[in-house]
Amino acid sequence: MATAAPDDVPIAFVNGGGGQMRATTTSVATSSQGRLTQAERRARTRAALLEAGALGISRYGYANLVLERVAKEAGYTRGALYHQFANKEELVLAVVDWVEKSWQDKLGHLFTDESDPVATLVEIARSYAVYCRDEMSRVMITLRAEFEGHDHPVGRAVQEALNRVVDNNARLIIAGRNSGAIPPGPPPRELALAFVGGIGGLVIHLAGQEPYDVQLAERAALGLLGLVPPTD
Known about the structure:
Elements: H1 11-15, H2 18-30, H3 38-60, H4 67-74, H5 78-84, H6 88-107, H7 117-131, H8 139-147, H9 153-179, H10 188-205, H11 212-224
């Protein structure tokens, strides 16, 4: 008879074949010279569920996201998911926060360089194109489209995250205009909205089209800023 899986132990570790169980036991026992602590197991479970949740949202959206499927994709029981998240809304809100932090970890440092705003904005566009090669990058766009026009906690969280990105881009546009590097044009925030939306849509639709995603993201960025893209 199969042993019931504890909430913080992956299903595959408990229900797998004998060799797999022995390999798992060895790896845990030899890491940090002892077993994982409860906090470490909980963090591992949460990370796996967040990643599976992000992939599920990218593929199916919020309405069609099935928590049992998320748990299975993560390699855990449904009970493990409910031990971490009370319901679908709580899981998706956590995914939104996780995705935003992941984005900040990979691209956030670029916004701190205002010495050459044009070069920084172009590098942001290029780096975002690379970032969007990951399927999980579609989480925010998928949720924003799904909750457009609806007052919902998930929709508000996505909009707040977007506003932070737009504000950062607007700050760079203002710096570029103050230095004369970016010509006069639409108000900075409106231009930043177009910049974020235009680059985002472009690179999402060009996912998998390397290296044209990066090349066209750069061209689009320069065009939106009112600058002439370089000729090949």
